[in-house]
Design goal:
Blueprint lengths: L3 E6 L5 H15 L3 E6 L3 H4 L9 H10 L1 E4 L13 H8 L4 E7 L13 E7 L9 E3 L5 E3 L5 H17 L4 E6 L7 H13 L6 E6 H10 L6 E4 L1 H15 L6 E6 L2 E6 L16 H13 L3 H16 L2 E2 L1 H4 L6 E2 L2 H10 L34 E11 L5 H8 L7 E8 L2 E4 L11 E8 L8 H13 L3 E11 L2 E2 L9
Parallel strand pairs: 1-2, 1-3, 3-12, 5-10, 8-9, 8-10, 13-14
Antiparallel strand pairs: 4-5, 4-11, 6-7, 11-12, 15-18, 15-19, 16-17, 16-18, 19-20
Length: 484
């Protein structure tokens, strides 16, 4: 066992308390770790930083490639970004893994046999955070799904299943509505699955899948999902199993890994000595396995299980466990340390080995081959405060010429011209689709530039345009809702 360097982040709210507790337990258990303390989050934002991450923190994180961290406060106003998302995306930590398990009967759970792993894509989707205010009434957030991103997370999920003896992977998307973005994620999952024929697979729409997770989690094993769905699914699963304070979270990629609890900062509990360090401790167990210290991980996990069996709980669980002994953060920590070397009697003991690191190495994928791309039209988005689509259509049609014709206007994705319905409510945000009208069915960028000049000459306020392209002869854009 060799000494490993790990970046340590206390975090905000209850973070300093639970980090202190976990570090103490690791030290008492014999972990060979040298900690490098850095500041992230609120304390850094308060210095005037717009990222919440100082140069010294970046240097440590990039050097060690390993982070154990307390929760960070996410800015909810202004333009400041989540530090967690910034670190994950900047370092390419594309896989987030949350293994959710119930500990019945010593911890109350809706599903005593629950044992589900959520493998969540961690860089893309709506969490890309590309947002704009478009008009007086409409805001936009771009949903970005890439083939490389989808392939990496799919390969990782299957490798995780292989390493951990998992039997089935369930892919959850909403590609009956988002056919291009979620559709890509689903298609890539199917492609990767062909290389793992011994692993059962299925695809479920995320709404039905969420209902299954709540009603019949025993039918699920490993779940793979795009970023936002995966976040919501893992929180629901953890709460159903017993509570988010018992579950660790790991984000990893080729450049390193971040280990943390699923808990938030809980500012109302900060400084009271009542916080539960269990979720962060379980993340630290994953860290120990990741760095090749399975014996220490075994000692800590068994000691923690033993303490759970003894009915020793912080306030978040004590009220739901008959006869529980209510303790604070420090006292729970002392109990775990005292139990080092013992094993649980009711719950199943663990015995980790050098070959059972539960986190497979990050997957590498190649870029997709170039397709034959042809430009066939453009969607022009307007800020227009009128309320009659027919009036807008008649006026904007004047911008068409022999190369481009206006064929459709939508509002919030629904076709309102030509032949729209008067019942459709319209905001001040309009998508106006121009399609090639020349005999070749193909246009150039110069055609679009000329079109935008004509739109401007009509006195219309355009926000942006989106090129409409075919890839290998297949349309790379969606129809409008209600478009023939």
């Amino acid at each position: 066992m060799s000494l490993r360097h790990v970046t340590l982040v206390e975090g905000d709210g209850i973070g300093p308390e639970i980090v202190k507790a976990v570090v103490h337990i690791l030290q008492e258990a014999g972990a060979e770790i040298e900690w490098h303390n850095v500041l992230l989050g609120t304390k850094v934002f308060d210095t005037g930083s717009t990222t919440g991450i100082g140069a010294d923190a970046w240097a440590s994180i990039r050097q060690t490639g390993l982070v154990l961290k307390g929760p960070l406060q996410v800015p909810t106003s202004g333009r400041l970004k989540s530090v967690d998302v910034t670190i994950g995306k900047s370092l390419g930590l594309y896989a987030n893994v949350r293994a959710v398990k119930s500990y019945a009967p010593v911890v109350a759970s809706h599903y005593p046999d629950m044992d589900v792993v959520i493998v969540r894509e961690n860089e893309e989707d709506l969490y890309a955070g590309v947002e704009h205010r478009q008009t007086d009434e409409v805001m936009q957030c771009l949903k970005l799904i890439s083939r490389p991103g989808s392939e990496k997370i799919a390969r990782y999920a299957f490798e995780y299943a292989v390493r951990n003896g998992r039997r089935k992977i369930t892919c959850m998307t909403k590609d009956d509505v988002m056919k291009i973005t979620d559709g890509l994620f689903h298609r890539v999952f199917i492609e990767v699955a062909t290389h793992y024929p011994h692993i059962a697979t299925e695809h479920i729409m995320v709404d039905a899948g969420t209902a299954m997770l709540v009603a019949a989690p025993q039918d699920l094993d490993v779940i793979i999902a795009p970023n936002m769905y995966g976040e919501l699914l893992s929180i629901i699963a953890a709460q159903e199993a017993g509570g988010v304070a018992l579950t660790g979270s790991v984000s990893l990629g080729e450049a390193g890994a971040v280990f943390e609890s699923m808990q938030g900062t809980q500012p109302d509990e900060a400084g009271k000595g009542t916080a539960n360090p269990s979720g962060l401790l379980m993340a630290a167990v994953k860290l120990l396995l990741h760095i090749g210290q399975p014996a220490v991980a075994t000692r800590i996990k068994n000691a923690w299980l033993r303490v759970l069996e003894q009915g020793v709980h912080t306030a978040d669980f004590a009220s739901s466990v008959p006869g529980a002994r209510l303790v604070g953060t420090q006292e729970l920590t002392k109990h775990v340390v005292a139990a080092l070397g013992s094993e649980p009697s009711t719950l199943a003991a663990v015995c980790y080995t050098d070959t059972c690191s539960t986190l497979p190495p990050a997957a590498k994928v190649a870029h997709a081959p170039a397709a034959e791309k042809t430009l066939v039209g453009v969607d022009v988005f307007l800020h227009w405060r009128g309320d009659n689509p027919d009036e807008l259509g008649a006026h904007l049609s004047k911008a068409g010429n022999d190369n481009l014709n206006l064929i459709m206007i939508t509002n919030r994705g629904v076709k309102v011209w030509p032949g729209g319905m008067k019942e459709t409510y319209c905001t001040d945000h309009w998508r106006c689709r121009f399609i090639a009208s020349n005999g070749e069915g193909v246009i150039s960028n110069r055609d679009i530039i000329s079109l935008m000049e004509r739109v401007d000459a009509l006195g219309l306020d355009f926000i942006k345009c989106e090129n409409l392209c075919n890839f290998d002869g297949v349309a790379g854009y969606a129809l409008g809702q209600g478009q023939a």
